[in-house]
Amino acid sequence: MASTADLRNGIFIRFNGELHVVEEFMHRTPGNLRAFYQVKMRNVRHGRIIENRFRSGEEIELVRVERKQFQYLFHDGQSYNFMDQETYDQIPVDEVLLGDGAKYLKESCVVEIMFDGATPVGAELPMNVELAVTETTPGVRGDTATSGTKPAVVETGASVNVPLFINEGDVIRVDTRTGAYLERVKK
């Protein structure tokens, strides 16, 4: 067993019999009261975020998770399917574990999936991906002078706001955490 002094962002703990990942924690020492840790954590199964106070020095149950590299294959409508790069085994992963960044995944993209035993409990997507623009309004000469944006549909079907000078067929870099346009890729 570990204590609250071992709390870090991103670690997995078992709380009330369920697996949670720590999103934020803060050590507080109010005036004449005892110190405590205010912890915001996300339930791995439901995705709900809860907050709890732990007394300073209280025991918590840390859970070790195994991290493995998987290659994204396809989306079958219900789950995203990945292939283990070592054993070539295929596993389905729920969209809840991947988060909003799942809509920017394209085939053959490498994702790090975390396991508690044989159950996937989380995934770490690449920070950014390069996607081709398949649909957008055409750019007009002189559009580079303003800082306006327009919607564009990328090859995965997701919509991204891009600068006015981006045209169909251009390859852009997109941040998978926020869905924001980063830059145009020259190829």
Would you write up a description of this structure?
The protein is built from 1 helix and 16 strands. It has one helix at residues 95-98, and strands at 2-3, 12-15, 18-28, 36-43, 49-55, 59-63, 66-75, 79-84, 90-94, 110-116, 119-124, 128-136, 149-154, 159-163, 171-175, 181-185. The longest helix has 4 residues, at 95-98. The model has no long low-confidence stretch (mean pLDDT 89). A 6-stranded antiparallel beta sheet has the order 1-6-2-3-4-5, with no helix packed on it. Strands 9-8-7-10-11 form a 5-stranded antiparallel beta sheet. It has a 5-stranded antiparallel beta sheet with strand order 14-13-12-15-16, with no helix packed on it. It is mainly β. It folds into 3 domains: 2-63, Roll (SH3 type barrels); 66-124, OB fold (Dihydrolipoamide Acetyltransferase, E2P) (Beta Barrel), CATH 2.40.50.140; 128-185, OB fold (Dihydrolipoamide Acetyltransferase, E2P) (Beta Barrel). It is flat and about 65 Å long. Helices cover 2% and strands 54% of the residues.
The major beta sheet can be summarized as:
6 strands, antiparallel
- CATH architectural group of the largest domain: Roll
Which shape, going by the Cα principal axes?
flat
Instruction: Figure out the total of helices.
Output: 1
